[in-house]
Amino acid sequence: MMEKAQRGSHRARSFLYLFFILIVVWLALTSSCQWQELTVGCIISLVLALILHKNYLALGFPPLSVKRILFSVIYLVVLFKEIILANIDVAYRIIHPRMPIKPGVVMIKTELKQDIAKLILANSITLTPGTFTLDIKGDTLLIHWINVRSEETGEATEAIGRRFEKYLKVIFS
Fold first, then answer.
1. CA angle 44, 49, 51 (to 5 degrees)
2. Which residues contact 34 (CB under 8 A, 6 or more apart)?
3. Which helix (H) or strand (E) holds 15?
4. Please, what sign has the CA dihedral across residues 113, 117, 122, 125?
């Protein structure tokens, strides 16, 4: 009985957060506060939230909360920053006369438990130039790295995965 009430609470919260996020996205995309556009945005956001909030928890995502949304935004900023830094690093390696690269495959460990969290970590690593996730097996990710600094799993984990994992732990806990 308690579990059913808790699921209903998660659905209601997911609906409200999803509706709020959709309204914010609508406002960002339209850049207008005219009543006609606000009305259409509210109607579309309401319909989408009604349809999608039930599927949100079925995908394995945790229930939405302000803390998770805040950490998701911080995570996106960190990801964007890491993508820019990795682009600069790879560009330097291409332009440098000796092309200082030492490619190789390393293994990193993750403390993430949910499959969706591991998938997001793997995709984040792949999005940063110079690294590519080859495989995920249990709590181990196989990564191709353009400049292997250490083949030791702990050091490779610190260099590649921890910068993303610390935020994903909070989001998916």
1. 100
2. none
3. helix 2-30
4. negative
Specify the amino acid at residue 95: I
DSSP lists the bridge partners of residue 104 as 145
Separation CA 77–CA 135 (nearest Å): 25
Please say whether the beta carbons of 132 and 124 come within 8 A: no
Quick: pLDDT tens for 22-47: 898 898 898 888 889 999 999 999 99
Q: pLDDT of 136-166, one tens digit each? A: 999 999 999 998 888 898 898 888 989 999 9
Residue 93 to residues 65, 83, 97, 103, Cα–Cα distance (Å):
42, 15, 8, 12
Nearest to 160 by CA among 117, 134, 131, 136: 131
Alpha-carbon separation of residue 57 from 100, 119, 122 (angstroms): 45, 16, 21
Beta carbons within 10 angstroms of residue 172's beta carbon: 19
Residue 91 token pair: 């560009």
124 within 8 A of 79, measured Cβ to Cβ: yes
- Report residue 11 as tokens: 């659905």
pLDDT in tens, 58-67: 766 777 778 8
